[in-house]
Amino acid sequence: MAITLNNGFKMPVVGLGVWRMEGKDVRDLIINSIKLGYRHFDCAADYKNEAEVGEALSEAFKTGLVRREDLFITTKLWNSDHGHVLEACKDSLKKLQLEYLDLYLVHFPVAVKHTGVGQTGSPLDKDGVLDIDTTISLETTWHAMEDLVSKGLVRSIGISNYDIFLTRDCLAYSKVKPAVNQIETHPYFQRDCLVKFCQKHGICVTAHTPLGGAAANTEWFGTVSCLDDPVFKALAEKYKKTVAQIVLRWGIQRDTVVIPKTSKFERLKENFEVFDFELAKEDMDQIKAIDRKYRTNQPAKFWGIDLCQIHVVATLILIRLLASKLGADSGFKVHVEDEYEFDAPKMLKGNSETLDPVVVLIPSAPTNQFQWQSKHPSCLHYKTSLLWLCLARSCVLAPYSLE
Question: Can you state the percent helix, strand and coil of the chain, rounding each to 5?
Fold first, then answer.
């Protein structure tokens, strides 16, 4: 089962992610997965195992286990190589022992100080904060990615971890449209508006962390997985499937590509056995209702950047702008509760005591999400991925999202 990309190439809807796979495990998992029917492998320079993947692929080709043209191989440009796209791509091709890539992605929408081609560093400055390179724009990086297509080194190019605004910008400045946006999305972090935006504009969404991170992200980031949710346990019993199979099937029925990772053969087999059943609409709706806006992958933990605080500041700037535009007697009140002790009401001018309060709750990391609460029954609201704003007694909606 495959999804046709906007350039006509087909991408299998289930792939194997190779993050955190090492040594002999890589060889065995690649070979075994091919025998089970996997034809899609998701790699990255930053995973630091392209050479091991390449050895396994070379063995599979030489032994006749599979033909190169029957596989879909993805890898990714790391942040420190934005100014060296061609060299980084060739380095990945050499390690993977391939003549071309099926898909090459910009891993993150940020360029950092170059540390050497293929070195995949995340250098920090003297303050312990990611050393961002401000001389290289994402547009420049993208045009270099487009050159790879014209040179025949890659068939498709795409983006990864891009929000709606960055995706929109990429669509505007691109000559070769992104074929894929690979993002974290799972039942606890559904990101419907971003997924639908991409699909509307012909960009296939690949779900990394499709099972909500499970043990790997719990270990690295202290987050929780949706696999323990009672809703999925009940559905697994109903369909006589495992919880993981229910979650992956949900992702497939959203028309997203899923790339779960595992180091265990039995899970490898289990994750691929998701094509012999279909979730009913009422069950898809039930899963939709458990969205927590909960991000489990938190790379900022290693970069010295508090993404939550950045979002808080952006939110308060937006609140102030809206309050100023609406005027002192608009009946707009916001109260912010957060760990940073920002006093949002003091930022607003006018009488803030006459209406029921609109509360923007900003929980601490790692959720990095915003929610609204209001007792006002006629309060208009616009739901976004990271921010819900309610404007009482006004007809102004705030179409603002950081997703």
Answer: 40, 15, 45
Please state, in angstroms and as integers, the Cα–Cα distance from residue 95 to each residue in 23, 56, 145, 245, 307, following that order: 14, 11, 19, 32, 33
Say how far apart CA 129 and CA 370 lie, in whole Å.
Answer: 25
- Type of residue numbered 259: I
Strands 180-184 and 204-208 come out as parallel
Whole-angstrom distance, CA of residue 58 vs CA of residue 56: 5
Tokens of 49: 């195992």
Cis peptide before 366 (omega within 30 of 0): yes
Given CA atoms 15, 18, 21, 26 in this order, what sign does their dihedral have? positive
**Angle (deg, nearest 10), helices 281-288 and 243-253:** 100
> Residue 41 carries which DSSP code?
E
Query: What single letter denotes the amino acid at residue 79?
Result: N
Taking Cα atoms as reference points, which of 108, 281, 297, 106 lies closest to residue 185? 297
Contact 53, 26 (CB under 8 A): yes
Q: Which residues contact 12 (CB under 8 A, 6 or more apart)?
A: 1, 2, 38, 39, 40, 72, 257
- The catalytic residue positions are 47
Report the 3 state secondary structure along 329-377: CCCCCEEEEECCCCCHHHHCCCCCCCCCCEEEEECCCCCCCCEEECCCC
Q: Which of 187, 386, 388 is nearest to 286 (CA)?
A: 187
pLDDT tens series, the chain, 403 aa: 999 999 999 999 999 999 877 777 899 999 999 999 999 999 999 988 999 999 999 999 999 999 999 999 999 999 999 999 999 999 999 999 999 999 999 999 989 899 899 888 888 888 888 888 889 999 999 999 999 999 999 999 999 999 888 999 999 999 999 999 999 999 998 889 999 999 999 999 999 988 886 665 555 555 677 888 899 999 999 999 999 999 999 999 999 999 998 888 889 999 999 999 999 999 999 999 988 887 777 776 778 775 444 444 444 445 555 555 544 444 444 443 332 223 333 333 333 333 233 333 333 333 333 333 333 332 222 233 223 333 322 222 233 333 3
Structural domains in the chain, sorted by start: 2-303 (3.20.20.100), 307-391 (no CATH)
**Is residue 204 within 8 Å of residue 157, measured between CB atoms?**
no
Prediction pTM value: 0.77
